[in-house]
Amino acid sequence: MEAIEHGFRPGVVIVGLLVGIFVGLSGVGGGSLMTPLLILVLRVHPAIAVGTDLLYSVPTKVVGAFVHAKAKTVDRKLTTMLACGGLPGAIAGVFAVAELRTYVRLATFDGIVRHAVAIALLVAAFAVLAGMRRRSGAHVQPDDVVWDDRRRGAVVLTGALVGFCVSVTSIGSGSVTLPTLMALLPTLGLRRLIGSDVAFAAVLLPVAALGALAAGNVDVPLAANLVLGSVPGVLIGSRLCSVLPERLLRPAVATVLVFASSRLF
């Protein structure tokens, strides 16, 4: 295990920049890419990698949500329903992690988190590929979505599952949420789904990050370096969202997810 350097680290800033672009552009790439990079490249303990990823993601997602809201690509009704399930799910995940650390040795716990991250990455990769088969919906107004009880329940449940997953592994706020929403709401429009996904993450991640901070699972200097790159990155990616074809981005993201997952097993 290599010691984490404190102070300005240009390489880490560049990693944050690239991941930030992915986040703003597609809603995917925060935990799905950053956590494996921290574990595999920087040799950070899995539990610390998850917590550090959560902390750096807070300002990244908040900035991205602001840009998407300004571009009117955030559906407030959808974001609210996701948050109604996601916030309780994130709190449950924080308590689950605390319980695991109480009854399981640190080395065993790190192994559990490492494999949980790998499994979540595989699920995310298949979800991203499955989402490519759904119609993007172009420019459709949110009023065209019929919000019946079944659809509302499915969205709230999605938020709850993602919230729990984010607290435990830091993965799910984009890589799982977006493809699931594409399946549930195919007429809403891809750009609006991405914007709503980023806004949901901006609400969800502070809860999970506070839990990680309370548990001491965060490397603050490392997170600060990541933020230095991720904030301008998410600004760039959010603005590119309406330009780069989604069909070109999804296969690349899925490939990275599968590769990272294979290195964690």
Features of the shown structure:
265 residues, mainly alpha
Overview of the molecule:
- The protein is an all-alpha fold.
- It has helices at 10-26, 30-40, 46-70, 76-103, 106-131, 149-169, 177-184, 190-214, 220-240, 246-264.
- The protein has one domain (10-264).
- Helix 1 packs across helix 9, helix 5 (106-131) packs antiparallel against helix 10 (246-264) and helix 7 (177-184) runs antiparallel to helix 8.
Would you spell out the secondary-structure blueprint of this structure?
Blueprint: H1 10-26, H2 30-40, H3 46-70, H4 76-103, H5 106-131, H6 149-169, H7 177-184, H8 190-214, H9 220-240, H10 246-264
Helix pairs in contact: 1-9, 2-3, 2-10, 3-8, 3-9, 4-6, 4-8, 5-7, 5-10, 6-7, 7-8
The N- to C-terminal Cα distance equals 18 Å
Number of helices: 10
- Percentage beta strand: under 5%
SSE class: mainly alpha
How many independent structural domains? 1
Bin the helical content.
over 70%
**Major sheet details:** none
Mean pLDDT, nearest integer? 80
> Cα-atom Rg, whole angstroms?
17 Å
Q: Which ranges are low-confidence, i.e. pLDDT below 50, for 5 or more consecutive residues?
A: 135-143
Q: What letter string, H or E per element, gives the SSE order? A: HHHHHHHHHH
* Count of individual beta strands: 0
Shape field: globular
